[in-house]
Amino acid sequence: MKDELKRRVYEANMLLPKYGLITFTWGNVSEREGDVVAIKPSGVEYGALRPEDIVLVDMDGNTLESGLKPSSDLETHLELYRNFEGVMGITHTHSEWATSWAQAGMDIPAAGTTHADYIYGDVPCTRGLTPGEIRDAYEHNTGKVIVETFAGLDPLAVPCVLVKNHGPFTWGTDAAESVHNAVVLEQVAKMAFIGRALQGGGPQRMPQNLLDKHYLRKHGKNAYYGQKK
């Protein structure tokens, strides 16, 4: 079971360079299985990464095997797993377009149907961390500010966030889906940025009924997009 979990997380991490979401080691993917989390090791180049290098930890962040150190973002991942029911995979990158919105401290508005097919509303940007939150338990507090931002939001309907001055986190039902949502977010961020430039200001949000139609036809209880499983 552990070897299979490591393999899945390794393969999900290797999708980040494939889709151009990372530079150097600027990213990581994890997956939770029960009370075990598998995550990329800290600072290991993707070209050198092997399935056996993936680090296993418990929900308190204790490593379960001798070997490499887990990603420095581990505590952020764990805080999301503890608070977002149904989230079993998480991706963090510094992808160019999504990170640009994060550095600007701006939500990505739901302006079109590509966005609505995956994300039920704007992509929120968190508040900035306080000096104390940065100084002490920074990665844990990054997770806490994401959870704070999602008060009143369904993280499965909005499977992504921008951390102000930092970058995006996305999630899903497993590691692969979290990467899929990271690819979607990067494209949505790019299109929203271009739309903003073309309009000379903020892009207009799409009508709520159009947002509902596109999201719910794919994810609602009466969804009809795609083939029956």
UniProtKB/TrEMBL annotation:
Q: Which family does it belong to?
A: Belongs to the aldolase class II family. AraD/FucA subfamily.
Instruction: Supply the enzyme class, top level.
Output: isomerase
Its source organism is: Christensenella tenuis
Q: Which InterPro entries match?
A: Aldolase_class_II_sugar_metab, Aldolase_II/adducin_N, Aldolase_II/adducin_N_sf
Keyword Zinc in annotation: yes
- Assigned EC number: 5.1.3.4
**Stored SMART domains:** Aldolase_II
Q: Where is the signal peptide?
A: none
Catalyses: L-ribulose 5-phosphate = D-xylulose 5-phosphate
In the UniProt record, does the keyword Secreted occur? no
Q: Where is the Class II aldolase/adducin N-terminal domain?
A: 7-193
Write down a Pfam family by its short name: Aldolase_II
Cofactors: Zn(2+)
UniProt keywords (A-Z) are: Metal-binding, Zinc
Name this polypeptide is given: L-ribulose-5-phosphate 4-epimerase
Q: What NCBIfam families has UniProt attached to this entry?
A: PRK08193.1 (NF006047), PRK12348.1 (NF009003)
